[in-house]
Design a protein that fits this description.
This is Acyl-CoA dehydrogenase. It comes from Sphaerisporangium rufum. Belongs to the acyl-CoA dehydrogenase family. By secondary structure, the protein is α+β, with helices and mostly antiparallel strands. The chain is about 45% helix and about 15% strand. It has helices at about 15-30, 35-40, 40-55, 75-85, 90-95, 100-105, 110-120, 235-270, 285-310, 315-340, 355-365, 370-385, 400-405; strands at about 5, 10, 125, 145, 155-165, 170-175, 185-190, 200-205, 215-225, 230, 275, 275-280, 415, 420. The strands form 5 sheets. Strands 3-6-7-10 form a 4-stranded mixed β-sheet. It has a 4-stranded antiparallel β-sheet with strand order 4-5-9-8, with no helix packed on it. The longest helix is centred in the middle third of the chain and has 37 residues, at about 235-270. It is globular and about 80 Å long.
Length: about 425
């Protein structure tokens, strides 16, 4: 078998059965309940827990985790093929434990919490963005953590677009422990229990009709001294570690959702007849199908190249910027085309297309808006010269990875099982979560 399929690494034989089983689980167990998930609240949380237990029983939960934490021990590049299948539904990662990998990155150094995340007893929500400030510039953070005489912290401020706060056991809160805006060096991430006095849910913030995002207030919340993620003042590094991985996982999931929309579009074109024949026989419909397929096929290699570089411990910032923008645009294009082929039915509740289109529209904002990635990537290339950005052959060459590490642009690494991540200087990007 070739090592590559359509421009990206082929799914390894030992991963292929897992991908197929995950795909079937998402299709048969998760997709039929997407309306319940989207409604949020207790019913959605109970459903997530129930299906999560089924996934554990069938050996499909937490496949991204290392073996010593009960996972499959897959490398990031191997897991990428599974993540695409998980992401065919927006709710797949939460049910199947894919989100736990990101929580482990945030909790590096907190072994007790890591074990609880790995067995599904604990999940995190991330409180980064604040009302009234630019969500893409964490240097403007005003939420403040004040050190008390006993070493603990007192938090005051507010956050919004916090996902999953209702069922989270901990909130990772970006707060200012020194300095004032726009100082980037005085930020830290504190691990806060949502049950703490002063932690208040202000309101739910539906996103294009879907629940699950919240605004919170932090009114004098006390946080133990040892509840820092990373070191004091290293908040941007903690956020950057998670966001770099989160962006690529999102790209993989968007590929899965685009494939789902593309399948619906092709089925509609083949089956729907008009007075002049099948939709599939109309050239303008064929154009929509071609353009959607082209978008998927050209985006996937960009995403897998970025994953391969990150998995190899190489600088993947430029590749991630390209992949993030390409994947967001691709999902918007494919879902829009699928709706067009379905006509009015594509706007209603009888297909998944409105839900997939909603994800496509938010894709250009989540984990940093497209404009930020475009600007940062272009500046980096113009500063450093085109160099390696003209090709991707070195991703497959071990000696290239070794040479790049020797060049000295690799910082200290953070390892989550088989997933290696470089501590690169963080970029000013903030999650919309």
């Amino acid at each position: 078998m070739s090592d590559f399929e359509w421009g990206e690494p082929a799914c390894p034989p030992h991963v292929r059965p897992l991908r197929e089983r995950v795909s079937a689980f998402v299709r048969d167990r998760i997709v039929p309940h997407e309306d319940t998930f989207d409604s949020g609240g207790r019913r959605a949380r109970d459903l997530t827990e129930r299906l999560g237990r089924q996934a554990r029983t069938e050996g499909l939960w937490g496949l991204a985790l290392p073996r010593d934490l009960g996972g499959a021990g897959l490398s990031l590049l191997e897991y990428a093929h599974v993540a695409e299948a998980e992401g065919a539904s927006d709710h797949g990662p939460a049910v199947l434990g894919g989100s736990a990998l990101l929580d482990l990155v945030t909790l590096a150094g907190h072994d007790a919490y890591r074990e609880q995340v790995a067995d599904g007893r604990l999940s995190l929500c991330n409180a980064m963005t604040e009302p009234g400030t630019s969500g893409s510039d964490p240097a403007l953070t005003t939420t403040r953590a004040t050190r008390e005489p006993d070493g603990s912290w007192t938090l005051r401020g507010g956050k919004w677009f916090v996902s999953g706060v209702a069922g989270a056991g901990l909130a990772a809160v970006l707060a200012r422990t020194a300095g004032a805006p726009p100082d980037k060096n005085g930020l830290s991430v504190l691990l806060v229990s949502p049950s703490s006095p002063g932690f208040r849910v202000v309101r739910e913030l539906p996103v294009l009709g879907a629940g699950g995002q919240w605004e919170i207030a932090l009114d004098g919340v006390r946080v133990p001294a040892d509840h820092l993620a990373g070191e004091e003042g290293e908040g941007l590094r903690v956020v950057a570690r998670r966001v770099r991985l989160s962006r690529l996982l999102r790209c993989l999931r968007w590929l899965g959702q685009a494939e789902r929309a593309f399948t619906l579009m092709c089925g509609r074109a083949r089956d729907r007849r008009t007075a002049t024949g099948r939709l599939a026989d109309h050239q303008l419909v064929q154009q929509l199908v071609f353009d959607a397929l082209l978008a998927i096929r050209t985006t996937r290699p960009l995403v897998f190249e970025a994953v391969a570089r990150l998995d190899a411990g190489l600088d993947a910032r430029t590749e991630t910027g390209l992949a993030k923008v390409a994947a967001a645009r691709m999902l918007r294009q494919v879902t829009d085309a699928a709706i067009q082929v379905h006509g009015a039915e594509g706007l209603g509740p009888d297909t998944a297309l409105p839900r997939l289109f909603r994800t496509g529209r938010t894709a250009g904002i989540l984990d940093g808006p497209d404009e930020l990635h475009i600007t940062a990537t272009a500046r980096r290339v113009l500063r450093d010269g085109p160099g390696r950005f003209g090709g991707s052959a070195e991703v497959a060459l071990p000696e290239a990875a070794a040479n790049e590490r020797k060049a000295g642009d690799a910082g200290s690494g953070v390892s989550t099982g088989a997933h290696r991540e470089r501590a690169e200087p963080p970029e000013p990007a903030r999650r919309r979560h």
